[in-house]
Every structure is written in structure tokens, then in C-alpha cells.
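Summary for the steering committee. The consortium agreed at its last meeting that each partner would contribute one worked example illustrating the joint modelling workflow. Our contribution is presented below. We chose a case with several input lines so that the handling of multiple components could be demonstrated. No manual editing was applied between input and output; the record is shown as generated.
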Amino acid sequence: MKQHALEISNLRKMYKGELGEKDVLGLDDLTLTIPRGEVFAFIGPNGAGKTTTIKLLMRLMFPTSGSVMILGESNASRRAMRKIGFLPEQPRMYEYLTGREFLDFTGRLFSLGKEERLKRSDLLLKRVGLGERGNALIRSYSRGMMQRLGLAQALMNEPEIVILDEPMASLDPVGRKDFRDTILQLKAQGKTIFFSSHILSDAEMIADRVGILKEGRLQRVADLEALTDLGTSAVEVTFRLDQEKQGRIGDSWQKVAVQGGQVMIRLPDRKQLSRLLSDVQSWEGEIISVVPVRQSLEDIFMAELGR
Amino acid sequence: MRILAVMENTFKETIRNRILLNILVFAIGLILLSLVIGDWSLGEQSKVIKDFGLSAMSIFGLLIAVFIGIRLMVQELEGRTIYIIASKPVHRWEIVTGKYLGLALTLAVNVLLMTAALLAAGWLMEGTIDTALLPAVLLIYIEILLIVAFSLFFSSFSSPVLSAIFTLTVFISGHLSGYLHDFVKLYEDRGFHWLLKLIYYVVPNLEKLNIKLAVVEHLKTGPHAVVLGAVYGLSYVLLLLIFTSLIFEKKDLK
Ligand SMILES: Nc1ncnc2c1ncn2[C@@H]1O[C@H](COP(=O)(O)OP(=O)(O)O)[C@@H](O)[C@H]1O
Ligand SMILES: [Mg+2]
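What follows is the complete predicted structure of the assembly.
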């Protein structure tokens, strides 16, 4: 049986207002299925409901309605939780422990044996780039180091699904790159990754799919593979053609730009490309470039959020 | 075991806390200071020291209990460390129980150190170690366990300041339980009668855990009173832990 990594059904969260305050909608009717092995980016501006969703997934909060299934089991089951690694937003860890002690502690919460914990702490400290700093008190860590340790603790149980809330928020450029590498490594191992961000470019480089959230509602799920699939995208053809010969083009093609002896034509469908190329030859024109244009994630993002 | 992990971690947290250490040093200092006071009071010196010492132990034990009990919960919840812990495959009651046991261990260490100071003071005075004090110490410890269970309970649903107020209210009304009983009778026809009655029935009678005077005076207390007191106190603790766990189990960690 093929189970999905995450199956979120009609998930809704209303924050009850304290005495006299109004209730606040945190998340409205989210239905979303994440297949195994996918890297899913959950994108939206601050206050969109990303953290709300993730806390509901992790059962840190309880939904007003709706349900979450993890690998075919309710997220209320501890067996399901054993397969998840979780990094909260701006993670905080016990400051009176060293990074290594903290990893050991989380390992115990996963009921790992002592040797296993030692081995994995060592490995993970290296992997997230903390290395020797693992023996320093967490009190002395910068925000970026906390984020790195947070990622390490999320991987202590070698989880099948990794859920990360704003994992790149306090990382410097090097940290971001390290982080992306780690995500890609995890993906290569077949892990499922669900992460949130308010920054679009975080998603563009590593995600398979992107969900765009706004004011508690999922606006759209975009498949990045499809977006970047050249087979279906439009094409822009630029060629040189003497100005006196440009009349030959006629109305059969839609000119996007003409600049002196240069003409650019956009083809909504690349199937017409070979016809255009032979036309250009017959006009005695000279092809300069054929460039696929794709709708960028940013176009979609702006379109969804601008509404 | 997961509870054990939480317990050890809590113990580490509390003993690495400098403020706690300060209170403890102060308490021990005060107990030893009683030697000086004892010197002034003619004849009854050793009794005064013991009485004073036991009282100091119970007051400081209480302060430490309220302080670390509430602080621990605040730090966990508002310090957001709870997100990492509660998202692990752990039951929330295991977290509550582990934390409680960790606190209990810290408090045990505190009480032991204060007891050592008290016995040392007595020994300096009399040249003997008065083991008759130990049953009183045990009951003081149980009272502290009870108070810290209350502080965890209140913190599971109210703000730190309110929790501290509630816990102190329990402490005071628990010691005035006997008077409370009289009040309930006296104000039978008043509007707030139900409140007095509620407090009287819900709040444990902490005087049952107070045998200080008896041991200082070397009156017979018998193992009976001690065992009964211990069972009484620990039953309350168990009940409170169950309630705290139930509340915590359903709590949105916003
Ligand atoms: N504890 C809370 N109490 C009341 N409202 C909240 C609480 N947490 C979040 N919200 C509200 O829920 C909405 C979603 O917030 P959140 O999930 O934190 O967004 P994001 O993580 O995308 O920035 C916001 O309108 C926010 O004000
Ligand atoms: Mg957020």
C-alpha cells in the first residue's frame, strides 16, 4: 500500500479570543497531500498561518476541525511521531546544556540507546557544521548556531519526514547554502521534507512543489517541475532581419519587439518553432537566439498575493 | 526511559540555577546563625536552635518550591523549549511527571543540605546528633513536595504571578485549616460561606504535616503520625499530578 507522507484534511484553527477579544482565524480549511519523497515549500507572508499549520501537524495545538494523517496513521499516535523530525520557528533549547547534551536528551526522548545517541550526536554536529562548538553551552550560541543545532535535533531519529518552520530565517548566506545542501542530501535519501518560509527564493532552489498561503487560506499549489519544464513553455525567438525585408513577416507572427535590424517573436507554444525557423530562413533572416521563457515562481507568487 | 530523561534534565536545570543556590546558602547561613541567637536565650538554647532551624527549613523550602516550580514551567512554556520536547514521541503526562520528579530530587538535595546544617548546629551545641528531628524533616519535605505540586498545577493554566498567589494561598490556608473550620461554622449565614467551605475541603490540612513542636519538645509522635501524614501528603501530590497532566494533555501550546 502506498501511503502519503502527510494527508491534511479540512484542517482549521480558530484562536479563541481572550476575554472580550475577537476570535482570530489561524488556518482555514487546509486540504493538502504530500507524497513521500517530496520537498514541499509552504510559502506565505507573516501571519499567513504557516506556523499554525505546522503546530497542528505536530499536535502542539489541536485543530478546531479537520485531521492530519502521517504515513497513514493519525498524528495522535506516537508511532507516527517517531518518524518525524521537527524544527520549530526560532528554536530555543535549554541554555544550561551543551549542544551535545541537548542532542543526547532529544535522543532519549526518542528512546534511542546510549551508543546510538553518541554516534548520531557526533555525526549530526559535524553535519550541521557545529563540530567542536557542540561542547559549548547553548547559552553562548548565536541565532544561526541555534538554528543549526535545531536542525541536528530534528534529525536525531533519522526521520522519514522532516518538518521545518522557517528553517532559513536566521541563517547567513553560508548557513543557507549548507542548509540547502542538507535538504538535498535528505531528499536523495528519500526523505519527505515540508518546510515553511516567507521568502520565495528559499523555495525555488530546492522544492518540488510550492504551496502559497495567505490569510489562512491555501491559494495555490504550484509544481516547480512543471513550471520549469521546457517542453510546455513558451519560446522567444530573436533574429536579424534587414529593415526593408521586415515587411515579409506580415501578420502571421506576433512580433514582441523590433529594434533596428533585430526582431523578437514570442511563441506561446514551442510546437510552432520549426515553422517559424523555416520562415525566418525564407525571409533571409539570421537566427540570433531561441530562448524558452517560463512563468517564474515569482510571477505566480505575486499574482496570488497581489490579489 | 523518557520520564527519567526529563527528570534528569530538570534536575540539571534546577541545580545549575544560581538564584536557587543563593537561597539555599542563605537558608543554611540562617540555620547556623541560630547558634548565636541560641546563645542569648538562657537555658533553652538547643530547643530554640532546633525550632528555629526547622521553621527556617520549612519556610525556605517553601520559597524554593514555589520559585523553582513556577519558574520551571514559565521557562518551558514561554521559553518555547516545550515545542521541541512536546513534539517528540512523548506523552505529555510523561513530561509533567518527569519534571515533577526532577524538582522533587532537587528539593530533596536542598532539604538534605539544610538538615545537615541543622544537625551540625545541634551537635555544636549539645555534642550529640538529635535524630529525633528526622521525622519532622521528612514531613517538611512532604509538605514541600505538596506545595511544588500545587505550583505546577496552577502554572498549567494560569500566569506565573497568579500561580504564585494561588500557591501561597494554599500554603497559608492549609496551615490555618483548623481556624478555617471554625470560620465555616461561624459564618454559616454569610455570602462568602461557600468560599470558606470550598477552601476548607479542597486545601490540604498542612498542620497534619507539622510535628516540629512535638519533636523539639521530644514529645511522643510515634511512627503512626508520620506515616499517616506522609500518605496524606503524597495522595494529594498524586491527585495534583493527575490533574496537571490532564490539563497539560489538552493544552494548546500556542
Ligand atoms: N497564539 C495566538 N493567538 C491568537 N492568534 C494567533 C496566535 N498565533 C497566531 N495567531 C494568528 O493566526 C494567524 C496565523 O499566524 P501564524 O500561523 O503564526 O502565521 P505565520 O507562521 O505564517 O507567520 C495570524 O493572524 C496570527 O495573528
Ligand atoms: Mg510563523
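Chain B has a mean pLDDT of 86. The pocket of adenosine-5'-diphosphate (ligand 1) is lined by residues A 15, 24, 26, 44, 46-52; B 254 (CB under 6 Å).
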